[in-house]
Task: structure prediction
Amino acid sequence: MKKLLIVLLIVPFISCQNTKKEEANTEGESCAKDSTKGKKFEMYEMSEMAALMEQMYVDNQRLKDRIIKGDTIGQFPSHFMKIHKAVMTDESDNDAFFKEQAAKFIKAQELIYKDPKNAKEHFNNGVDACIACHKQKCGGPIPKIKKLYIK
Result:
């Protein structure tokens, strides 16, 4: 078991080393290139909107749990309002359709806090607004978003 652990810890370091002197990186970038294609590795950096949506997802997971348990709802998270101004990965996506869906989402979210008796309905309306927008703009997160529905 110890041998396996040692091998698993050492192999990534060894595999990243250049074996030929002429391939040696003179700029000090160890392992910064994709060894199969010779391309430089670049870290993905989330746009302001993507980061906001990730945070809204987490906030809504917590809100969903509170609604299901019948706990107090709390107050509307003011950072949700950044949806109207957050910088997107592709600014052309910030069109009239997006603005309309964002307004529907915010309205549904606000209603959860104003009308807690119908929190489940308002919450699911907010999820509907997310999905409607993502069907047009970026479909990747739809399966994840659907998990927010309160049944």
